[in-house]
Amino acid sequence: xxxxxxxxxxxxxxxxxxxxxxxxxxxxxxxxxxxxxxxxxxxxxxxxxxxxxxxxxxxxxxxxxxxxxxxxxxxxxxxxxxxxxxxxxxxxxxxxxxxxxxxxxxxxxxxxxxxxxxxxxxxxxxxxxxxxxxxxxxxxxxxxxxxxxxxxxxxxxxxxxxxxxxxxxxxxxxxxxxxxxxxxxxxxxxxxxxxxxxxxxxxxxxxxxxxxxxxxxxxxxxxxxxxxxxxxxxxxxxxxxxxxxxxxxxxxxxxxxxxxxxxxxxxxxxxxxxxxxxxxxxxxxxxxxxxxxxxxxxxxxxxxxxxxxxx
Length: 311
Ligand SMILES: C[S@@+](CC[C@H](N)C(=O)[O-])C[C@H]1O[C@@H](n2cnc3c(N)ncnc32)[C@H](O)[C@@H]1O
What we know:
The protein is α/β, with parallel strands linked by helices. The protein is built from 10 helices and 9 strands. It has a single domain, classed as 3-Layer(aba) Sandwich (Rossmann fold).
């Protein structure tokens, strides 16, 4: 695996995926531990089940994929829910060996970039260069596509949803769970980030990479533009500081304080360097960010779960 960009000695031993993809986060054990904690907090936040798709009506399905599966935690949950299906876990990085050993037998792990899939012509013939992932996404072959927290990896959402729409069978379901890069006061739509300098810098970096600040809330429009029919769209408070007003997000607030906040400086370093910011300026903006993201109880980003069907 490629070493991280070592602009500071403290970060030199972090490890990253070894591909050209836009994804900015590491893939080492610290990150895997964070992802598993985040997955549990998300499930609690959205009501105790990893998927909001109509899973009861999907029993008997044959082929599903978890895109950007990370440590494979949701892939395993989906595989256990649908034992008769082959469930593909696709990611830029390998799933941890310990997970591969205990995974249900109906999972197939594949390393690859979903944005590399190219349909060469209107008949749906695919380019040979992207064979393993492209085989999973054969036109009209998938019953269920699940993708969660891909906002730091997908820099062409139109391609993501049009590839997915093409790969679904008629009646197949896509579920997308993702976060917007804005901060709100609890139980309101009142933005808190308008005056935050570090946030403006991150927005500018996002623009350069093609990553979207609205990967959650824009999904429905993009799905519709790809010919999909929206079944449901629900929004949750991804709390950064626990607050009793957002009861289902209390575990999320604890997770953010314990596991995400310590990783924020590294995330900001990677983002701000994209915008040419280095050295003491990164430190200043990071100090501001750490203060702002924990500035009040219930401060949150909006997490949207969108479920759609191919007609
Ligand atoms: C924040 S993690 C979320 C992991 C998992 N979905 C979860 O919720 O636990 C994002 C994952 O998406 C993967 N990823 C990012 N861009 C990708 C791409 N273009 N194709 C495949 N995987 C991608 C990353 O390697 C990373 O493991």
